[in-house]
Amino acid sequence: MKFRPFRVSVLLLSLLIPAALVAVVFFLVAYSGQAILFNGLHFMTQISWNLGDLYSDPVTVSGISVPPGANYGILVFIAGTLASSGLAILIAVPLSVGAAIFLAEAVPHRIRPALSMLVELVAVVPSVVFGLWGITVLIPLIGRYLSPSGNGYGLLAASVVLALMITPIIASTLYDALLQVPKENRESAFALGATHFEVVAKAMLPMVRTTLIGGIVLALGRALGETMAVLMVSGGGINILPTSLFSPISTIASFIVSQLDSAESDPTNMSVRTLSEIALVLFLITLAVNATAKLLSSGALNVRKRQS
Amino acid sequence: MKILNNLLRSGVAALAIATAAGAAHAQTSVPLVESGSSLLYPLFNLWVPSYTATHPGADITTTSTGSGAGIAQSIKGLVQIGASDAYLSDAMVKAHPEMLSIPLAISSQAVNYNLPGVTNLKLSGPILAGIYEGKITKWNDPAIAAANPGVALPDHVIIPIHRVDGSGDTFIFSQYLAFSDAGWASTLHYGTTVSWPAVSTAIGANGNSGMVTAAAANPYSIAYIGVSFADQAAKAGLGQAALLDKHGEYVLPTAETIGNAASSVAASTPADERISIVFTPGENAYPIVNYEYAIVSSHQPAPAIGSAIRDFLGWALNDGNNMSFMSKVHFLPLPAAVKALSQAQVDKIQ
Prior knowledge:
The structure holds two protein chains of two kinds. By secondary structure, chain A is mainly α. Chain A contains eleven helices and two strands, in the order αββαααααααααα. Chain A is globular. By secondary structure, chain B is α/β, with parallel strands linked by helices. Chain B folds into two domains: 2-107 and 291-346, 3-Layer(aba) Sandwich (D-Maltodextrin-Binding Protein, domain 2), CATH 3.40.190; 109-262, 3-Layer(aba) Sandwich (D-Maltodextrin-Binding Protein, domain 2). In chain B, strands 1, 2, 3, 4, 6, 7, 8, 9 and 12 form a nine-stranded mixed β-sheet that branches. A three-stranded mixed β-sheet of chain B has the order 5-10-11. In chain B, helix 5 crosses helix 7 and helix 12 packs antiparallel against helix 14. The radius of gyration of chain B is 21 Å and the shape is elongated. Chains A and B meet through helix 4 and helix 10 of A and helix 3, helix 4, strand 7 and helix 9 of B.
């Protein structure tokens, strides 16, 4: 066979990305191996998290050297992650469906490009900016008008900040899909005497349902992994499960960031290994979400093909 | 991981030697990198420009990454100077006997409160431990009232604020609680991160600036805030609590009381200088005071690197250790006896 330099170089380059993914998984599993052994399965179901006394001599527990008192349970952080992301989706979906329909159906054609660009612009605002806005604007508002204890930090603040970050993702995917709906469908619905609302609700939205689901799952992926903005407004809950909208929470991603510095001064290294194990858990959660997105958006593509 | 570390280390060493050799032709400069404590970072940023102005050819980069990262990177040889608010633990020193903990300055911490109508509040270690453990939940708790006779304490839930990120401030605050409250010492110990007990009103805030913002936004809250942020805390209208020292007096953080704490430990500071200045027995001594450390390896990969570190840290301990630098970040210079010990440690760097 002839040696084709172009084909070979492209092949190598394309292999780099899956190789990086495999390398990350391999590193996480290999590095957290000892932690997985030490933590066992109750790791996922325990509430209490304690790095242990990093300033005393390490003790040996079933053959593994750990700081005395070390006890790693991540149920609080799994709950915080799922609760804040789920709530963010609940807030973001109506907002973004409304925004997308408004952009596609109600806005005068002349200002539509400007407005849709603005929506997409929100998607690229750095997360720390959302966090700052959360601290300076949102938290005092929640504290003053909603929270019974006057404390604005917690689940609600984190969810609202996340919702704002993911609304443009869902809105712009949905807006693009709505523009793809064939003119014929829309016009025939109007011709049958449907109101504008009925046209949107009955002739257009069913056609873009899979795109909407795909967009939501992609947004969920972003919300699950968000770190900085959540760290700034979530109240950093630890050892306590959220009981209300105003409970302090921690998400997996923000918790890893907040603990890493202390973990690095652990002489047994078990803290960093356990953080890697948590990263693995987060990785699996986001992987599941993304795989779902892939499946759903391939379905969405089929819909579009049928349209064209 | 070990192989990776070694690779990194030898790579850094080779790079350093190469740049050192290259620099020998052009100029006798070795690039140094400082990384770590965000509390020490402003001081290094004052030091480095003055040092390079008087020492042409010196090349020092400063980064603020956190004490734990500073320690870890210095041990791995990725940076030459790790900055830390906490000294190395015994276990760390056992694992890495070449690592030195060298005090460069004296820092302290205030316990701030946002308590409408109250301007002079006295608190003790056991009271603070009770608040952060969730055993003392109201401001008019008998324990707080007993420490503050004549003060009208509100019947309101306390909002305790702690750091979510690993922090030297959490280290010295939890040391104060551990040294003065046996219950805290046996369960929660001390460290740059604490397994904060479940208190439903508690807030975790990110960084000292986050602590100031959270305390200002939440009336009836209490927070521990590093002295570098004293101006911001005062501007936000937060009060400073007088804390019970080991001598049995309530002491406010002032240059005098912080200096008293530092000098009370100066004579008993061991040669490796790993000692706490928290809750010292001195008279009129503020209880939450600490040394700010440079974490440096005594075995540098090349002699030129060792001498560059010695020159800079030696300068920091002498010319750099005066009030013109320190007062800007609210630190205090080291007592003379401690300065001599630090200099002796600096001289060990090869």
